[in-house]
Amino acid sequence: MHDARLTAARVARLATVDPDGRPHLVPIVFALDGNTLYSAVDRKPKRSQTLRRIENARARPDVTILVDHYEDEWSRLWWIRVRGRARVLDDGEERERALGLLQEKYPQYRDEPPDGPVLAVDVTEAREWTASATQPTTPGPERIDRS
Amino acid sequence: MHDARLTAARVARLATVDPDGRPHLVPIVFALDGNTLYSAVDRKPKRSQTLRRIENARARPDVTILVDHYEDEWSRLWWIRVRGRARVLDDGEERERALGLLQEKYPQYRDEPPDGPVLAVDVTEAREWTASATQPTTPGPERIDRS
Fold this sequence. Notes:
The structure is a homodimer. Chain A is of the alpha+beta class. Chain A has helices at about 5-10, 50-60, 95-105, 110, 140-145, and strands at about 10-15, 25-30, 30-35, 35-40, 60-70, 80-90, 120-130.
């Protein structure tokens, strides 16, 4: 994963699956390290340390993450969709390293570091789509992907 | 559903569930009409009229849609998450009406109207989250939601 647009993106959306089988969706901030994407849970009172996204990822680790660019000039639309396996880091060295990467990317985290678990997603599949590649006469990735 | 931010949003993300149970995610443009949210499939060659999102929604109509606002000033973050039941409109009057709403909101659709199916999502649940409501000392909606 060395996609400059993915690395630079400030926000992504994380989809997990609820226990009842319905999709769950939240925006996340994230940092990429090699093939692993990290996001943290914001500081919370102890009673709500267990968040739906985290519990979903523990139970069903196949998650999907989307980064997209929107503007009214539709020929400039693009998105990157990542699928991967999630691991919940409740503590330990990898979690500390991930928090460091997040603080590097987001100064907002430096004042108030997240104290909840870190979600690590090992990317197994990435797909990019760019509007300019999907003109009717030029079948592009989305055609094949049938999104 | 009379949320001004939701109505005004230009882009949302649609989560469905793949046949293998993994979440699927795409950005969508949409128009809201009462409690129903409509999105269309862009013009495609006939061979790819069936898109993953559409087939997922036919098979498992419980879908989730997210509209969010990101900026580096995190106290201004917000999101709106909608859950609903999807219906696929392959033709008919409601589809035509939805296309009219989409063309009204997005002039881009006027030159090249989408000729695929329209996805109608009847909203059953909506949740809003605003950063300013979730300071550690002021439990807000996200606490209850445990997202």
